[in-house]
Known about the structure:
Blueprint: E1 4-6, H1 20-29, E2 32-37, H2 46-55, E3 59-70, E4 73-80, H3 89-113, H4 127-132, H5 140-150, H6 156-164, E5 174-175, H7 176-185, E6 189-192, H8 214-224, E7 228-232, H9 234-238, H10 242-251, E8 255-258, H11 282-291
Parallel strand pairs: 1-2, 2-3, 3-5, 6-7, 7-8
Antiparallel strand pairs: 3-4, 4-6
Amino acid sequence: MIRKSEIHMHSCFSDGEFSPRELVAIARKNGVSILSLTDHDTFSGIPEFIEAGRKAGLIVFPGIEMTVKYGELQLHVLGYFKDLESIQTPLWDRVETMKAQREERMVAMIDKLNGVVPDRFQGEITFENVQKAAEGVLARPHLAREMVRLGIVKHTGEAFEKYLVEYNVQRENIHIDEALKLMRASGGVPVVAHPGERTYALHRPDKGIDYEDIPARVEELKALGLMGLEAIYPYHERTGKVEYFLKLAEDHDMIVTGSRDFHGFNTHQTPDVLGTTKMEPDFFERFQQAWG
C-alpha cells in the first residue's frame, strides 16, 4: 500500500496560507503519514511543526527550500534533515542572514511600488504593515495581501499581474556550492525542487538551456553534493515530463522525490490537494540511509 506523503509544503512562516500546526491537521485528515515542512529560507516554523506532527503520530522531519544561484540560473534547493538537532549552527546562521536579505529586498520593492501605484495610494504601502502579515520571512504574497487591504488591487492575483512581476527586485542569493556544503554538513539530503518548472528550473529554454543540456548539469551538481531530483511535480505532469526526470534521476543515481508544493490559496490550492502525489515511499528509506 502506498503511504501518502507531502514533503514540499509552505506555512505562514514563508508564503503559505496555513500555520505549521494547521498543515499537520490537514495532513492527518488527508491520511498523510510522512511529512516535511519546507518554508522558503527559514527554519522558524519547524519547532511548531515537529511538536504538532509528533503529537499527531506522523513521521515528520525538518526541511527548507533555499533559493540559490547556479551560474546564470536561480534554483530552488530543498534540504531534508533527520531532526531539529541535526541542523548545524553555520547553516542556521546563514539562513538567518538570508531572512535579513529578504527584508532589504522588500523595502526596495515597496519603494518601487509607491512610485508606480495610482497617485492616491502612493506612500500608503509601508514595510511595517507588510511585515504584520508575515510570521517569518517576507515574501511577495505578503505584499500582495497588503495591496488588497489598501484597495490598490481587488485580489492577490491582480497584484502579481499588474505590479509584483514587473516591479520585482532580485536579491543576491547564496551560491549553490555553499548551500549544498552547509546542508550536507548537517547530514541533510539536498534535492533540486521542480527541475522542469518555468522559473526556478534546470530547464530554461529562454536562456538557451533545453532538455538535452540538463544531464551534464545534474552530473555537475551531484559532484557538488546534490542527492535528489523532485521528479514528480504538478508542472511536470502537465507537460508530460515526469518520465524524463525519473529516467534522469535513475541514470545519475539520484533520490526521486515528489510533491504538490502545497501553499494553499496563494497558489489556488484547496486543503484536499495536500498529500495527493502518487509515489512509493522509497525516498524515505534513502533519506534514512543518508541520515545514518
